[in-house]
Amino acid sequence: MPSRRDMPRQADIARIAGVSQATVSVVLGGRSGVRMAESTRRRVLEVAENLGYVPHPVATRLASARSNMLGLYTFRATFPMEVADSYYPILVGVEEEAAALGQDLILFTGLSGAEASGEAAIRRTRVADGCLFFGRHVPEEPIAKLVDSGFPLVYIGRREELGGRIPYVGADYVAASAEVATRLAGLGHRNLLYVREADEAPSSADRERGLRQAAPDARIVRLDGPALTTDTVRGWLADGVTAIVVEETDTGAAYSAVRRALDAAGLSTPDDLSLAVLGRPPGDEPVSGFDIPRREMGRRAVRLLVDLITETETTPQQLLRCPPVAGTTAGPAPERDHA
Questions:
Q1: Domain 69-171+294-320 in CATH 3.40.50.2300
Q2: What crossing angle do the helices spanning 202-214 and 173-186 adopt, rounded to 10°?
Q3: Which CATH class is domain 173-291+324-338?
Q4: Which of 12, 29, 96, 128 pairs with 175 at a CA distance of 20 to 30 A?
Q5: Predicted TM-score (pTM) of this structure
């Protein structure tokens, strides 16, 4: 591959076209209002095309207000490109909308853990016109500096940090979770148990809040590890639990633990008890719950970011409805619930 030193520069175009470098800059920068012979403009463009000239993105940004480049930052060492990954449809939506709006994407990768949340790592996003972020947590100090400086950014997922100043596109987990609990109540379930991970995030808090709105007496169990014992699950049934509701997260830990324990105990859904997920579990099992419009979240996030960059009037915090999924794992409560 040719080195950067071997790549054509504006000075090369000027020399071959027989014009000044300032003229080349005007033509390639698309600046209007500058008087120039059309033959000169065509000659510069023809030479640039023949040489395969590509403007340096950072130089272009310094020379103009925008580069038409959007950043995409995840707090993981590698981007989630597996189709089964919960983040994958978000990336598909982001790519689709960026292409539709004529925007290029810069993927910020290569860091993990504390390094990914550090100020130096996040400051790299300034090479773009604005940046999309997604992850369960917000590194408040470096993100606050971006917000305070006026740098356009959008989080994918509802955020409440920094006093509610972070623009976002998220899913309405409160309403969707309440709807799941209401459907279970309609099937006669009065003794619900909610299994969630120990980690705290706005998406987790929203799910629990929605569930409690519709089922205030539901018992909450926070997993202390990746596994549940069969004795624990059988104990829940002995206590009168007829429906288990599980939190969905990007790790899928809670659902996987519950499903393994149910299978190991020889319990079937919905015959022995009902099972619902506040979201969609990994795999193709038709579990009752709701869909998360991740692809549309990615698309909306791009549109919101472009609106912020172009200072277009917009709604900086948006929640999308999560359509219900009936599934086959929730059924009428067994008679023991009414004993």
A1: yes
A2: 30
A3: alpha beta
A4: 96
A5: 0.76
